[in-house]
Design goal:
This protein has 118 residues and is an all-beta fold. 0% of the residues lie in helices and 51% in strands. The strands form two sheets. Strands 2, 4, 5, 6, 9, 10 and 11 form a seven-stranded mixed beta sheet that branches. A four-stranded antiparallel beta sheet has the order 1-3-8-7, with no helix packed on it.
Length: 118
Amino acid sequence: QVQLVESGGGLVQPGGSLRLSCAASGFTFSSYAMNWYRQAPGKERELVAHISSAGGSTNYVDSVKGRFSISRDNAKNTMYLQMNSLKPEDTAVYYCNAVSPLGLRTYWGQGTQVTVSS
């Protein structure tokens, strides 16, 4: 059974930091590219960060470049998103996403809420 379980969300003040985790099971994690998406109320789901299967390539949406860092530990079947200098506009539900080689399969986590507010 495939599972992606996000954790680490919460309430943080502007300028603060959070570290999200995504624990994967039920598939060959090291073969899958991984993504973090987010969806704010009333807005479409947005791709925030991408990491290749081996972790050697990463990409970010412009609004988080220099503040967020995506990483993965294939030995632990876990992906991370380090979020620094958080802004109120980063408030959203953050989702973990896995994509198989050639994009034939994709899996989603249930999401974790991040709220940036004073």
